[in-house]
Design brief:
This protein is an alpha+beta fold. Helices cover 37% and strands 26% of the residues.
Length: 150
């Protein structure tokens, strides 16, 4: 991994993040990298919320990975704080390099540092490779997720 840096995303990183979000069959259907305005507005909201951590993995000045970590205080589980990992993406040139593992390990360590008792994530049911990846890292497919488009 050499000179890899995992750091908070900056506004200048948004185009690279959006490009990675759009670079797969699912993302290609729902992302619009040619119109950055909604992403920049969302990034501003993320940046203002101390419980949101949009991070990027950078090597030699190039953004090659990203994820969003959300910290959620709660009452269940005896008042446990949990985290949710979302939007994990690795640049196509870096897939299979171990970078995804490094990003998830960072998210788990940060969750522990923030006092979380549980880390959770979802992955689209058609992403069988992602499911194997997360299971290899110790995540268990324990729940059925539901979504309601608004």
């Amino acid at each position: 991994m050499g000179d890899l840096e995992i750091r908070p995303a900056a506004e200048d990183d948004v185009p690279a993040i959006v490009a990675m979000l759009a670079d797969d069959p699912l993302g290609a259907q729902r992302e619009s990298p040619d119109d950055l305005a909604p992403y920049l507005a969302a990034f501003e909201r993320l940046s203002a919320d101390p419980n949101q951590h949009q991070v990027v993995a950078v090597r030699e000045g190039r953004v090659i990975g990203t994820l969003q970590l959300t910290i959620i205080p709660g009452l269940s589980r005896r008042g446990a704080t949990r985290s949710i990992i979302e939007g994990v993406r690795i640049h196509a040139d870096e897939r299979g390099s171990g970078l995804g593992t490094r990003l998830i390990e960072w998210a788990i360590a940060e969750s522990r540092r923030q006092g979380c008792r549980l880390v959770q994530l979802t992955s689209d049911a058609i992403r069988s490779d992602a499911r194997r990846f997360y299971e290899r890292l110790g995540f268990t497919p324990s729940h059925v997720g539901f979504k309601l488009p608004l």
